[in-house]
Write a structure and sequence with these properties.
Elements: H1 13-35, H2 39-50, E1 54-55, H3 56-63, H4 67-79, E2 83-88, E3 91-99, H5 101-110, H6 113-121, H7 125-148
Helix pairs in contact: 1-6
Protein name: MarR family transcriptional regulator
Pfam family, one: Staph_reg_Sar_Rot
Keywords: Cytoplasm, DNA-binding, Transcription, Transcription regulation
Length: about 150
């Protein structure tokens, strides 16, 4: 790479990831609008549909969200009657997040979203799977590095 090229926008990994994430999130918007939820609410619900009744701390770790971001998100979902938060009877310091019946029912409406979004990418499934695996590896490597420097 020639001198100075490393500072060009198109040569930045961070910008490529940022731009791609924004564009992919836009693909989800019309489907999530139908459900009345945001993308961040969607990924939170995905985590809870996978494993319900989890401590807030575990949910935050799973979603890579700090408590300053997660708490208002959970309050909003609770206000929408999709989840409820309750103190863990075995550890009063811990708050457990549980889906409500309405939150569980939303899963049946959301089940077609991944396929609908995939169809709009115009990429072969194998390429999408490879990209997802590479992104998981990168996320893990960056997370491990950032946690090691705290």
């Amino acid at each position: 790479m020639e001198k100075g090229a490393q500072l060009e926008l198109d040569n930045q990994l961070c910008f490529a990831l940022y731009a791609c994430a924004r564009e992919v999130t836009k693909l989800y918007r019309p489907y999530l609008d139908e459900l009345g939820i945001t993308y961040t609410q969607y990924v939170t619900l995905l985590a809870l549909w996978e494993k319900d009744g989890v401590p807030v701390k575990e949910l935050g770790t799973r979603l890579y969200l700090d408590s300053g971001t997660l708490t208002p998100l959970l309050k909003k979902l609770e206000g929408m009657t999709l989840i409820r938060r309750e103190r863990d009877p075995e550890d009063e310091r811990s708050v457990i997040v549980r889906l409500t019946d309405q939150g569980r029912e939303l899963k049946t409406k959301a089940v077609t979203i991944p396929e609908r979004v995939f169809c709009r990418t115009n990429m072969p499934g194998e390429e999408i799977n490879q990209l997802r695996e590479q992104l998981r590896k990168l996320t893990a490597a960056v997370h491990e590095q950032s946690c090691g420097q705290l």
